[in-house]
Amino acid sequence: MESSKARLFDVSNLSCLVGSLFVLLKMVTGSNIFLILFLLTAGTAMLLEKSEHKIKVILYFTPWAYATKFYFTQTSLFTVLTLAYCLIMLLTILLDRTQIPSYYVISMLLFVSYILFSLMMNASTSLKGAVSFLANFAAVYLAILFVEKPDAFKTYARTYAAGLTVSSLIAMFGSFIPTIRQYLDSYFTGYTVHTAGHLYNRFSGLDIDPNYYAIQVLIGLSCLVMIIMARKGKAIDYVLGMALIVFGLLSLSKMFLLSLGLLLSFVFLFLFKNDLKQLGKILVLLTALFCIGWVYAKDYFYEAFLFRFLSQGTDASSLTTGRSTIWFHYLYGITENTKWMMFGNGVTGEYLNDEISHNMYLIAWYYLGLVGILIALQLFFQMNTVLRSNLKRQTSLSFFHYSSISLILLLVANFALDSFIMHYFGVHLFLVLVGINSLAKSSEFEKKSRLMMQSNE
């Protein structure tokens, strides 16, 4: 119990709580002094926390990025916080003389060099944008060096889910407070669904777009589901999970609804085969949630989602809300230009024809080219290699195992989103890699090694 209390009131958890209060006070008063206090609180926590827990501050405040700005047109303090984290971790590595594999250093240097090279590929790319892009991946790169216990995934997932839930609650109930409503309106773009008789507002938490908010909710929810299916879940995981389902549905995102259906289908099939008791708990909770929704919001969800799926027609362009047409524009534009196809048009450059691609794979190809994608992939694989070494796991990746849920949803849902260039992509990548290596089933080699150790004892 003492250990549990210590974890509950550790430095990073307290800084997240106090930091949330400072951001809320900024919304209420409009005073930027509270954002400075927020930055100082978060930065102090990263200085004082243990190396493996410093990343918790980044995880918690990822959904708050748009709300932590002096002015909407300026750089988010989340980017400043990420850069501060990278600097603190580099100092920690130097002071502690942390050993880093040479191949790991080379993989990052290669990635950084290519991104800087991309600045020369297009005069419209910005140094500030490239630095922000690199900072997101550098934070993950450095954090992975200090993940040494599989149980750390539970802490990371809960911290991220808590940050999403608290920020969503502030956005929901703050809309009834004039000063907070005014603050949100200063950067928020309203998204609505207008049916035959009603106008429905789409919820997006503290984000500016309900679809990008929905993918964050989806990754947080999938990580909690992985913990529960590994039989390591606690009451807080169920509470956070149910809250995130509600918030995700309020976004009225077709991507979220389809991905949620995929997630629940996987959960039901897996638990039906392996854990009927756990399946019973989840069915009771989902049934209760469904009954409450049916009583209080039947028309809202039924009409809005039905309209979203069917009102614009049944052809591919209508079902994808025009995205499939944009995808073909990008595919044609990239393949027609040899330079773009091989080396991309430069990170943080303009969109093709001023259109967002609505596809993670196409925007990565357009920005990086085939050469850049290969360099990025080698960095991701090296991260995974170091993580497996730190955790002493010889895991076996299987798309039919619950440890791959977040990876599957990340790959599937981002067919409709440009997540690769968003501030939260690095965090999602971190959660996916740690989740896979912490919860994946052991390979035959690892099982034999454990048996040999037990026999020697």
Task: Give the gist of this structure.
The protein is mostly helical and 457 residues long. Helix content is 71%, strand content 1%.
Distance between the termini: 31 Å
| Beta-strand residue percentage | under 5%
Uncertain runs: 1-6
Overall shape: it is globular
Q: Order of SSEs, N→C?
A: HHHHHHHHHEEHHHHHHHHHHH
Radius of gyration: 22 Å
Strand tally, please? 2
Tally the helices: what do you get?
Answer: 20
Q: Please state how the strands of the largest beta sheet are arranged side by side.
A: 1-2
Please state the structural category.
mainly alpha
Mean pLDDT: 85
Helical content class: over 70%
Largest sheet: 2 strands, antiparallel
What does this structure look like?
By secondary structure, this protein is mainly alpha-helical. Helices cover 71% and strands 1% of the residues. The chain has a two-stranded antiparallel ribbon with strand order 1-2. A hairpin with a 4-residue loop joins strand 1 and strand 2. The longest helix is centred in the middle third of the chain and has 35 residues, at 276-310. The two termini are 31 Å apart. 42% of the residues are buried. Mean pLDDT is 85; it is low at 1-6.
